[in-house]
Amino acid sequence: MTLRRTPFPGRLAVGMLALAAALPLLAGCTASPAPSATPSPSAAADVNGLPAGVQQATDVPTAVPNTPELRRAVTVSSCEKADGGWKAAGTAKNTTDAPVELTVTIFFTSDKGTVLGTGDTKVAIEPQTEARWTVASKLTPTSKTLCVLRGVG
After folding, report:
1. Which residues pair with 76 in a beta bridge?
2. pTM of this prediction?
């Protein structure tokens, strides 16, 4: 018995036809996600994960004065709800022999780091003393709003 081989172009054509016929079958074997019983949240909530009614800040400053040596002189001692928003308060120390004026910048964020509001204040401090400062922002807080010392300059 003699085997006769099909010429290469013929075998190639048969192989291509078999592959073309199998592709739709293989595509049908992928799993589809199960339909959800509960509706998904709105696109805005999906993007930033904030509770209903809470908005992220849209005017967040990008050029914040920040000098590491001056940050060491500033403490945040409270972070709490205020009329129409949130506030941070603390002290700034001046250990030099000359008066200084510092700009303290606070970002009010969600516990996930989304900026909800910002604020800053100037603090004048006499030599070898400390001064209290407060920064407030109008915002709708989350249940875990944080006060972040963003910069001191």
Report:
1. 90
2. 0.68
